Amino acid sequence: MLGIGAFKQRLPRPEEALPGRDTPLPLHNVHFVNGQPLQGDFAGLQVLDVGLGCFWGAERKFWHLPGVVTTAVGYQGGVTPNPTYEEACSGLTGHAEVVRVVFDPAQVTLDTVLRTFWENHDPTQGMRQGNDTGTQYRSALYCHTQEQYDAAIASRDAYQQQLSAAGYGEITTEILFPAPPFYYAEDYHQQYLAKNPNGYCGIGGTGVSCPIGLDV
What we know:
Elements: E1 46-52, H1 55-63, E2 68-76, H2 85-89, E3 96-103, H3 110-119, E4 128-129, E5 132-133, E6 139-142, H4 146-165, E7 174-176, E8 182-184, H5 192-195
Parallel strand pairs: 6-7
Antiparallel strand pairs: 1-3, 1-6, 2-3, 2-8, 4-5
Helix pairs in contact: 3-4
């Protein structure tokens, strides 16, 4: 018999997932920190969606990265359309908490973005990140081009060697191309730690360096 909360350690079957809604959640399309749009066509830029635990602290890591134009948080990789935060946290949508990273490849390389991803969480923990437990906290890379996917796989394999040497287990990161639908989270989650400087940040890495993207 499964213990309390054990169902949140597995993704829901389609018939178990919450129905969601047809209408996206309202979005104030302005980045609280830099004034850039959160949503757009982003011509000439690259978009990569990353899940590395609670999206509050994860987003802050990326908006501080030089060459990143804008960031937004949302839900991705599940079944339920346009979920709310409470629904995602229920374990019945299948979504991960993710950060949409929009970056200028002329200013920062894809490898550097990937290195920032790997080094700021523990990608070997399965359906959790630190004390945050549940499918929404799983490690994920959702790629928008074949180049991104190939680079993500290569970076995973390179980092696995370093993690194994340091005594860590197998990387559990979900790497997908094409990227599944991205649903923007509620306004109050966008750039949360800029709006709430003393808010919770569960982000933390293994201390093991990733041997890619050493261009900055």
